Amino acid sequence: MIEIKGIKKRFRNNEVLKGVDLTVEEGQTVSLIGSSGSGKSTLLRCINLLETPDEGKISIADLSFDAKEINRNVRAKARRRTAMVFQNFGLFENKTALENIMEALIVVQKKTPAEALEIGLDYIERVGMEDHRNHYPQALSGGQKQRIAIARALALDPKIILFDEPTSALDPELVQEVLNVIKKVSNERTTMLIVTHEMDFARDISDKVAFMSEGQILEIGTPQELFGNPKEERTRQFLDRYLQRFTYVI
Amino acid sequence: MGKIFDFEFMISIIPDIIKGIPYTIEIAVFAFVIGIGLGFIGALAKIYNVPVLKQLTNIYVSFVRGTPLIVQIMLIYYAIPIFVRLINQRFGTDWDISWIPALVFMLVAYSLNAGAYLTESIRASLQAVSKIQIEAAYSVGMTTWQAMRRIVIPQAIKVGLPVFANFFIGLLKDTSLAFTAAVPEIMGQAKIQAGRASRFFEAYIDAALIYWVICIILERVVAYVEKRQHLTEKTGGVKA
Ligand SMILES: Nc1ncnc2c1ncn2[C@@H]1O[C@H](COP(=O)(O)OP(=O)(O)OP(=O)(O)O)[C@@H](O)[C@H]1O
Ligand SMILES: [Mg+2]
């Protein structure tokens, strides 16, 4: 289970997170939606400490810490318990698909190359990329890259996987293959927090959906509650705009 | 009355001039290695905005790029003895600098020169690696140094290889100025031989040809290494 309480983060004069509380139960999938600039990415980055929150408390499974006590040691521990899937993949371009998955197992988790290989092959198969294991990222499509990035995250055996708009950088025809993999991972009861603009997908896979606005989580509930009967006016407006946008596209 | 051009003399002194090659290579390789080290530190100071160190790097780079190499050589040549004398005076030591070979002065001068030029090339190469890969490296738990060593540096070397290789070739040619400090490298040897027979043109032709051959060989080596690096591109990005 991960629990964050009162997380605040400012960049210079811009207060981006204004005291965020959020709990993700073990095995749950929580989606985070909200308009651009509302602080969704910053929130994810504050959980694995790519950004250092100014205030608040975070607990990830057995690790609990206050923003004030973040140091190199806490960072290492937080990152050992989390994994992140980025919008722009972030694959290591000097490593093959399989090596991308094995890298941290060897370098960070100090597994033997043989162990890492076994785990790597297992996960590359789970995302259906075993035929591309010796390909460098440059030779993969966006969708294939993202599947490898997901396998890399899974292989770390984290307490939670943080997805930051995993399909936003993909060509439309590649979105589905990635969503399918994420859905499969979600069904296997992996704990995950996923920022997405794919509303149908969020409705489909989430145990809970949180709506974020101006640095705060305004509303959180089951997909039925949040999409079917939003309590907050701003949630309603956001969803209306979104659904409208989709009808326009169609 | 002697010959206008003494071909036999030109051939006969080649073995003597070749004796300068080890000095030439030694200065170039030493300066390159130390220069890479200095350049790496300077590049990191600039990239990570390290206070003080960054300003010092800027001044160092600007000075080296803004002054002729020959002037830098002279400065080092005269600065080190003065520096040693100052230390002797200040601490009552009795260091004798006359036993320090001129070659050492040149190694210092060329290293400092190379470090400044390489700072910029190394910085550009390191920054050519996308930031998202570095964040990804941190996100999987790597330390700054692990990310540097395993992800950034290998890619930076690949990106920077042509620049570094050309720099080395240029550096090797620039070592010819070390003769001004009486280092018997290729040019120094040529000068010695030329002076003995007052046949300068013949000796300098030898020197030119020797530099040329070395550079051709180096260019071949670089081309070979680059070809090997691009192997994966030929295989369509699949590990060979
Ligand atoms: N490193 C940074 N330095 C300064 N400001 C930043 C930084 N990162 C984010 N911000 C600012 O914080 C605010 C929230 O950004 P964030 O990326 O978290 O939004 P988001 O909800 O993820 O938006 P999007 O849907 O566009 O990805 C924005 O105003 C952004 O300009
Ligand atoms: Mg974002």
Structural class of chain A: alpha/beta
Beta percentage of chain B is under 5%
Distance between the termini of chain B: 67 Å
Q: What does the largest sheet of chain A look like?
A: 6 strands, mixed
Uncertain ranges of chain B: none
Low-confidence stretches of chain A: none
Helix content of chain B: over 70%
Q: Average pLDDT across residues of chain A? A: 94
CATH class bucket of the largest domain in chain B: Mainly Alpha
**Distance between the terminal alpha carbons of chain A, to the nearest Å?**
39 Å
Task: Give the overall shape of chain A.
Answer: globular
Bound molecules: adenosine-5'-triphosphate, magnesium ion
Radius of gyration of chain A: 18 Å
Instruction: Provide the domain count of chain B.
Output: 2
Number of helices of chain A: 9
From the alpha carbons, calculate the radius of gyration of chain B and give it in angstroms. Answer: 22 Å
Q: Roughly how much helix do the residues of chain A carry, as a percent range?
A: 40-55%
Kindly state the number of beta strands of chain B: 0
User: What is the oligomeric state here?
Assistant: heterodimer
CATH topology name of the largest domain in chain B: MetI-like fold
Account of the protein in words:
The complex is a heterodimer of chains A (250) and B (240). Chain A is globular. The mean pLDDT of chain A is 94. Chain A is built from nine helices and ten strands. Chain A starts with a strand and ends with a helix. Chain A is an alpha/beta fold. Chain A has a domain at 88-157. Chain B has 240 residues and is mainly α. Chain B folds into two domains: 1-20 and 184-240; 21-183, Orthogonal Bundle (MetI-like fold), CATH 1.10.3720. Helix content of chain B is 78%, strand content 0%. Chain B has eleven helices and no strands. Chain B has helices at residues 7-12, 14-18, 21-47, 53-66, 69-91, 102-127, 131-139, 144-174, 186-197, 200-229, 231-234. Chain B is flat and about 75 Å long. The interface between A and B is medium-sized, with 33 and 23 residues. The structure holds adenosine-5'-triphosphate and magnesium ion.
